[in-house]
Specification:
ATP hydrolysis activity, alpha/beta, single chain, 10 helices, binds adenosine-5'-triphosphate, ABC_transporter-like_ATP-bd, ABC_transporter_ATP-bind, Rossmann fold, ATP-binding, 38% helix, transport, 283 residues, six-stranded mixed sheet, four-stranded antiparallel sheet, 10 strands
Length: 283
Amino acid sequence: MKSHQGNEFPKANRKKVIAMKKSEQENIITVSHLNKEFVKDGTSFQVLKDIDLSVKKGEFVTIVGHSGCGKSTLLKIICGLVSYQDGGVSRNGHAVSGPDAQCGMVFQDHRLLPWLKIKDNIGFGIRNMTKAEREEHIARHLELVGLKGFENAYPSQLSGGMSQRVAIARGLAGNPSILLLDEPFGALDALTRIQMQKEILRIQREEKVTMVMVTHDIDEAIYLGERIVIMSARPGEIQEIITTDKYSRMNRGSSGFAAYKKKIYEHFFQDSAEFLQEAEYMI
Ligand SMILES: Nc1ncnc2c1ncn2[C@@H]1O[C@H](COP(=O)(O)OP(=O)(O)OP(=O)(O)O)[C@@H](O)[C@H]1O
């Protein structure tokens, strides 16, 4: 494998991805034969191995896998925040060469700037707008995430769920065609989390944004994922991609939902049937 550390992106891959893209017009994200190594204490170790993943425009894809299998790294590579060794990554038909406004990202911790009001956190990256346009744009995004009236509040005055709403608004404020979400609801209580899952689907529908979400919550992965990507332990490889149907996915009590759950558990626990039985008994 060719070694490639730092923030440069392999030139050969750019051409390869652009050529490949012409035959796959409908894919807004294309990851092909991606490998990623990190170096720790002078020794390199492989984090991602031969990742092939295409995401269609408007799709909602979820990713599940063991801790440390490289899920966040994969999102950061797609976003252009982290470089890679081999393979190709393209967004909107262009090889990724760094972060840009076409791709927003939301992290588990909201990363709001505590000294800025909510409206200024959302508007932080907005350029090329008049003051009036900017204010209108921010107001629209606050309304989108259900926080109308909170423009002058500070992050410390918001709950965890509200802060994540602001982070989502900020991620969408640059009008990206892709929003990558890295465990965005991981720190929320169960009820707020379910509420946020509904909200993110509504937002995706209204904004027509393609979304890829990493989650540790298998129910969440099923409920949101039109396709669920299951990754192996490090080095992370794609083990299976499950395509879900809307009815089963969105009905948590349905037999279809339970079948998806069983299938996913089987990847992570050898005795999944026993595990599920035990879980039921304990309830
Ligand atoms: N910048 C870095 N330098 C060195 N090693 C890194 C770096 N970023 C991540 N790693 C390592 O790469 C591996 C994958 O990390 P990553 O955060 O992508 O995993 P993950 O699947 O998202 O984990 P989790 O589910 O626990 O968040 C881990 O072993 C991590 O320590």
